[in-house]
Amino acid sequence: MTSRALPRDELLRRAAAIRLVLLDVDGVLTDGRLYYGADGEALKAFDVKDGHGIVLLRDHVDFGVVSGRPGKASEKRLQELRVKHLVFGERDKLAGYAKLAHLGVPDGAVAYMGDDVNDVPLLEKVGLAAAPADAREEARAVAHLVTAAPGGRGAVRELCDLILRAKGL
Predict the structure, then answer these.
(1) Cα–Cα distance, 103 to 89 (Å, whole number)
(2) Which of 59, 88, 132, 167 is the most exposed place for a label (fewest CB within 10 A)?
(3) What is residue 7's predicted lDDT score, i.e. its pLDDT?
(4) H/E stretch holding 158
(5) What is the Cα 50 distance to its own chain's centre?
């Protein structure tokens, strides 16, 4: 597979134009593992470094989630982080993205971080495509940025830091 990784100056140029950051949940905001409690409730772990990156950037860009799984276990954390746009239970990521068309943000001003094969079409569409270090090869191959950190362990923070730097914040 060929890589779409970009040189640093082009990454910064694209990052400076970002107005909306969209994230997958499992494998991006979490490490992808699912824990189940005694009553069958799903539990997930979120890294505070990723959350702090969102906090630092959220007053300058909008944030949203496009996730293939239902969102009950994630909603509390996303509410704490004031993530505004939530699309859950949408395995077809382009269809999930289409549900956010009313925001009027052009593709070139959207960043998306995904980690698996169903994320590839959306990664190919947006202006800044990112994947965690431990993403599937197919997602890494189409990403402009592959982070040093794995999903759920600082990958989102790296994307946020890039956008902050590019915007001079």
Answers:
(1) 20
(2) 59
(3) 86
(4) helix 155-166
(5) 10
Residue of 33, 32, 43, 14 lying closest to 111 (CA atoms): 14
8 token code pair: 């640093």
Amino acid at the residue 118: N
CA gap 109, 87 in Å, rounded: 19
pTM over 0.85: yes
Amino acid at 161: D
Tens digit of each residue's pLDDT, the chain (169 residues): 556 888 899 999 999 999 999 999 999 999 999 888 898 888 899 999 999 999 999 999 999 999 998 878 899 999 999 999 999 999 999 999 999 999 999 999 999 999 999 999 999 999 999 999 999 999 999 999 999 999 999 999 999 999 999 999 9
Structure tokens at 114: 């995904």
Return the residue matching tokens 């989630």. Answer: 65
CA distance 67 to 54: 17
Domains of the chain: 8-166 (3.40.50.1000)
Residue 79 CB contacts under 8 Å (≥ 6 apart), including other chains: none
Spell out a b/e string for 51-85, using b for 16 or more CB atoms within 10 Å of the CB, else e: bebbeebbeebbbbbbbbbeeebbeebbeebebeb
Task: Find how far residue 112's CA is from the centre of its chain.
Answer: 5
